[in-house]
Design a protein that fits this description.
- The chain is of the alpha+beta class.
- It has a single domain, classed as Trna Endonuclease, Chain: A, domain 1, CATH 3.40.1350.
- It contains 2 helices and 5 strands, in the order H-E-E-E-H-E-E.
- The chain has a 5-stranded mixed beta sheet with strand order 1-2-3-4-5.
- It starts with 10 loop residues before the first helix and ends with a strand.
- 22% of the residues are buried.
C-alpha cells in the first residue's frame, strides 16, 4: 500500500488503516454516518467522527492480535482518554457554535495476523 506521495506505508500503519476501514464499514452497516477520519490536533487524534442518531460520536479504533497480553479495551488508558477529550473539544470548537450531544465509543478488533476475527462496539466508553 502506498500513500499520496507514492511512498510505501509501513506494515503496522497499513494494518491500522485497514482496521479503521473495517471499523468504518461496520459502523455504516449499523446506520452510523462517518463524518471525518483521522482528525488531528497538536495534542491528540480521533480515528473516526460519526453521527449516530442525535449523537456526535468520537470513535477510537483499537486492534490487537488475539494472543496479545493487553486487550484492546485495556489499551485505552487514562492518558489516551485525556488526549481524546482534548481533540474532541478542539473539533467541537472548530465546527459548532453550540455543541451537540456527544459520546465516546470504541471499536475493538481482534486479529489473527492480517485477518480480522472479532469486532466489538462499546458505546459511551467514558464521560
Amino acid at each position: 500500500m502506498f500513500n499520496k506521495k507514492n511512498k510505501k506505508i509501513p506494515k503496522h500503519l497499513e494494518r491500522g488503516l485497514r482496521g479503521e476501514n473495517f471499523a468504518a464499514d461496520f459502523l455504516k452497516k449499523h446506520n452510523v454516518k462517518i463524518l471525518e477520519r483521522n482528525f488531528r490536533t497538536r495534542r491528540g487524534e480521533i480515528d473516526l467522527i460519526a453521527q449516530d442518531g442525535e449523537f456526535l460520536v468520537f470513535v477510537e479504533v483499537r486492534m490487537r492480535q488475539k494472543n496479545s497480553l493487553v486487550s484492546a479495551a485495556e489499551s485505552i488508558n487514562a492518558a489516551k482518554q485525556a488526549k481524546w477529550k482534548i481533540a474532541a473539544t478542539e473539533y467541537l470548537a472548530q465546527n459548532f457554535d453550540s455543541p451537540p450531544d456527544c459520546r465516546f465509543d470504541a471499536i475493538l478488533i481482534s486479529a489473527d495476523g492480517d485477518n480480522f476475527q472479532d469486532i466489538e462496539w462499546i458505546k459511551g466508553l467514558f464521560l
